[in-house]
Amino acid sequence: MIEVENLTKRFGDNTVLDDISLSVAEGEILAVVGPSGAGKSTLSRCISFLERPTSGTIRADGKDFSTLDGQGLLDARRTIGTIFQAAPLLRRRTVAENVGLPLEYLGATKASLTVRVDELVRHVGLSERRDYFPSQLSGGQKQRVGIARALALAPSNLLADEATSGLDPATTESILDLLKALRDELGLSILLITHEMDVVRRVADSVARLEGGRIIESGPVNQVLLDPASDLSLELLPGQPTITPSRNGEIWEVSYASRDVHPTWLTGIAHAPGLDDLEVEVLSASIEAIRGIPVGRATLLVSPAAPPAFLRYLSDRGLHAKRAAPSKELAA
To answer: Given 41, 127, 170, 177, which is the most exposed site by the fewest CB atoms within 10 A?
Structure first.
């Protein structure tokens, strides 16, 4: 478990992180997202105590890093394994030798090191490549070596700092599947630092948005996606191209606000009492199931205008609607 309370980090007069609090429970994957310059990298370095916070508390498995130094701090830091954007592998060492580096530095016996390395390369699906050198590996395979090495000292927590950045979609998916499998098998707490919303939607249980050094929104992913007032929910759902309207009318943005939205809500509009003369055109839509719960949003052109019965129809079916720009503005 990772706990961050009232974390502040200043460099001179510049406050990079301002009163940050978050926690990652055992077996949870928390994603921290935000624009460039938001403080994500500084947060990562502070949590791993590569940077000492100006104030605040960081605990891993109940150990308060701020009260430790020397060997005590080194021992505590081993409870957090770190995965970097690009795995820093030694090019003249094989996969097995790179994975075993932390154990080698701790003076592990050759027999125990071999057993542990074999276990780790199996965990990450590289048993057949244990004797390969980094130059013989793909980007995704190198990242798997980095993950295995981060697990070498049996940490209960993982900190992944942009671990899938720069990887192609298929490789990204395989790395995320691996992280989920490791979380489930080993009971890890995983903190993901990322700018990729697809990563959040695919693996995260919870999400926090960092902006200007502060957490401005956070919560379980499913709750965020179903919150019509959440700016983060709009970022999490992929945008879709908007079709130019074919007629005049009102444009409405409809979003899922319930776990029980029936999939026939759109086609049902034509058969609802008082709405049979309404023309509804879909300008864009993004609807999918996340954790088995349907979520999404759609942009609709309603003509001639949306009557109160239209809004009641949507609300009764767990949908939230708000008026958007007039069609002439969208078409422009």
So the answer is: 170
